[in-house]
Fold each of these.
Amino acid sequence: MIVVVGLSHKTSTLELREALAFSADQLAAALSRLREEAGAREAMILSTCNRVEIYARSDEGGAEAVARFLATYHGRQLEDLQPAVYRLDGADAVRHAFRVAASLDSMVLGEPQILGQVKHAYHAAEGAGTLGSALNALRNRSLAAAKRARTETGIGHNAVSVSYVAVELARKIFGQLRDKNVLLVGTGKMSSLAARHLVENGARAAVVGVRTMERAQELAATLGGRAVPFTSLRDELAATDIVISGTGAPGVVITRPDVEAARARGGRRKRPLFLIDIAVPRDIEPSVAQVEGVFLYDLDDLKSVADANLRERRKEAAAAEAIVEREVREFLDWQRSLDVVPLLVDLRKRAEEIRRAEIDKARSRLGSLSAEQEAALNAATSAIVNKLLHAPTVQIKEMARNGHSPEQVSLIRKLLGL
Amino acid sequence: MDSQLYLLFTLAFYAVGALHVVAHAFTRRRLLTTWTVTATLAGFAIHTASLAQRWTEAGHFPAVGLRDGTSLMAWTIVLVFLAAYLQTRVEALGLAVYPVAFGLVLVANFAPAPEIGGAILKSMFLPVHTTLAFLGYASLFLAFTMGLAYLVQERELKSKSPQRFYYFGPNLERCDTIGGASVAVGFGFLTLAIATGVLWSHGSKGRYWSWDAKELSAVIAWFIYVVLLAARLRDGWGGRRAALLGILGFTAVVFTFLWMTIFTAGAARASVGVP
């Protein structure tokens, strides 16, 4: 049975997750210990900043042992970790594994990193030799389902972080970002991140040094752009498409007359101007937004777009959940059909034994047979066996698909004398 | 099959496209699907057959009167849409084109057959002038659509809390570029249409110009587009103002078209001078 034991951003604090995390170099040893100490036949550990989870194949009640291992490995008492640690088994465990891979259980719905993290976790388990047929099947099917959910629905669409929202908006205004001029006023972390995204999309950056030129030159170098002194801010404005302003200045840095003058110069009236003000207090005079062709976004505006985008993703989540649910059902059906495989193999084997024994008896009574007669005898007996076994085989498979109980299987075994 | 039956099938196919695109606009997935495009292509093929059939039945170029006028207009709009869509892949075009094409074909289906006769139907100017004019109208309709898209998208961006159009609508740059290109193309056709119209008028009535409402609105539209193109080319105008002018220009065009199809539907008007 597949079990999932662990804790996530939904059940625990970051502090607790950090305490129970497995580092990459701990994984191999931890995985083998899981097998030895917690009775796991197969095991995988997924440890990211938003979740620490152990996926395992173990016997009935094995989840408890795995949970205890998670605590003792980190020198904790399991009782102290409650109620953060969840234990799932059977269908619930499978569903959870699928939903995690599809980023439906993520803190930021639809975030793309989780897929890679899950892949890495399975890869590590494979390297440690703790990945068997059950978890390997879970890996293949859950990753395939995750890809389907991502490509067939919009759960991964639209930016939900402030710096990517800036890029998305720039695209909505300019289309292509190639050869657009970005003017960075101030060298804050968030503004340089947004500028980096823009540059990666083909934009050219210029960095205005606000207090000193030194930081501006450094940042300009990493962005492949140039540094300009604060005194030429107004000149630069005339040749700029996108401004990202994030200085620590107490007052307004870019005024409405600045913008109007810049747009009147150099025939730039036609092209839009996109101003991003991520400073608190704000750098750009708010009434600039009323100038024709100017789009001004402050930090709150960017957040409001990010929220709207997240709402869009949530709408798509229902469709993604439906895809995942279908895939989970298929996986469970397939898994259940595996349960009766030993029964079917035994049934076949028993029938074949009886057939061989009866042929031997017949041969001793009939004396030597020609090759033709031998073949006819074999064909006739095989046909009887196959025809007799056909209906039970089909029925047992059908039963497995519809969800069977262990009692049913043992009853069949008893009836057939296996 | 006669042309009316063809037209009914066309209506059905365009209805699929129109319903699809509107439904998708509300559910916010991709606007156009393979289904929509396939239905359009099938509809367009049957529509073409319908026009060919109608041409044979009528014995003249099917562009006169409400029924033929709307049908040919819808056909030209879909043609221009397909060309623009294949070139740009802007799906939001469909949002305006499908309902309009559907509406026009609907009118064509229920409008009475025209009772027009006379020498003008035999004139070589009829196919030449109307084809040029309709291609112009369709291109300018595209510009109108892109102008609207620009204004809506700009409002979405300025509002800071995006609604539906933000997600499926084209970006401002595209609206502006496609709008500008369609105006240029449409203006070219419109100019040629007016020129052939003047020649035709001279040929049939002996006068180059008669100052009726249709001619006047055509010239007003033409001047609006002259201003728009000049502003774009000379002063680097674009964006909001260009979008607004494109919309204004098209309003004049619509008036011209309505005048031509509705008020010239009767034989009396027709004899005075079609397009």
Note: The mean pLDDT of chain A is 90.
Amino acid sequence: MEVTLLVNAAPLLLQALGQTLVLALITTLLALVLGFLIAEASMLGGRAVAFILRCVIEGIRGIPLLVFVFLIYYLLPRLGIFIDTFYAGCVALALFFATYVAEILRGALRTIPKVQIEAGKALGMRHWKIQLVVVMPQAVRIALPALMNLAAIVIKATSVVSIIGVWELTLATNEAVMRTLAPFTFFIAALGMYFVLCYGTVRSAAYLSKRMNRSQRS
Amino acid sequence: MISVRNLSKSFGANAVLKDISFDVAKGRTAVLLGKSGSGKSTMLRCLNMLERWDNGHIEIDGAALGRTPSTGGEWRRWNAREEAQARQRIGMVFQQFNLFPHMTVLQNVMCGPKRILGKDEATAKKIALALLDQVGLSAKQNAYPAFLSGGQQQRVAIARALAMEPTVLLLDEITSALDPELVGEVLEVVRDLKRRGLTMVCVTHEIHFAEDVADQVIFMEEGLIVEEGAPESMLTNPRTERLQKFLTRFHAQNRGGKAAA
């Protein structure tokens, strides 16, 4: 390991780490919202909508992320959508992981007893308020471990979009390696940073879970 | 004042309500009595539109429920917004309490005023604390429902319904899921509401509940009203054979239960 090389590259790598974090955050938030809408739509929209969404979900889940990223990257301009590579990467990742979020949420939503919805109705709430105030908080508590697990996977998966030229930790590391010809130094440093992010996510998941389970009898 | 006229409802080929008519005067407590499958719960659920009826008419405080007269003598069925709005003034308490498990007792009771009526935090809290005091649970305000006894949960559920200031309160078998020693504390709250002049409709298969709180008992069997009247006369001197049978069986079971205990 060559410490001076690392020290010299540190500002750049930290900036790239920041990019990775932003990418993961945007992706996760977008995937959560999209996944929620997909889950809701497939429960509310009737059989046809549910079937179509089922096909989309199974379709996307059945292909490699790398191929999907390429697909979106080339598809967007064709659809007349010209956006920065960074956002193209976000969109690809978010669409891909929204299907996983939808599946997790659908499973969690199904565990909420129907009488809870009735209790909300009886108070005079309408559909979206019941979802927001009564159903989602309970579903999120149940889905939290799986969602946080997915967030850790998203952090790691952001490295894939380096392939379409999104500048983040993996791409920056690779550039550093090519300039210095010191692959182990930089890739091990990158691994360390990915690990810290993921481990931090998993740990905070455990903490959050514990907090949210205060309402439960153990 | 509640008025039900010629209400009928079927689930497929199974007619659960057959031409039901009754009135409940303002400030009175009506008890729908009957065994399970008699249609009494379905009747109650129609009163806040959790169940749709096929034919007939319900009025609460002089206004039609579930539909509005429109031009040419036609009726227009309410949309989701109108239904929700009407339900805000019709409180309901369930057999299984159905408190929101992710909220504390206080948050459960504040939920209506704050999230539905849009009152500010301080006002909602004041309303909720007053109601928790009324049902004797001020000390539990920060507990989660899972940590309360059934009787306590049911009292919170009543407070949660009352926080919307309903003109009518519907009680669906509210003591049936409770251990016998916890029934008293819930009945106490219901008696208190009766004294305060709240209009209530209760569903039960327990005769003491009817004896305890009813101004008016409506005995149902197989979707029909078999007998209706004041509890004192009806429950001691049933006019119909069906009610007589129901009472006899209930008392026999009760004696059996007590002997076994």
Note: Residues 3-215 of chain A form a domain with the MetI-like fold fold (CATH 1.10.3720.10).
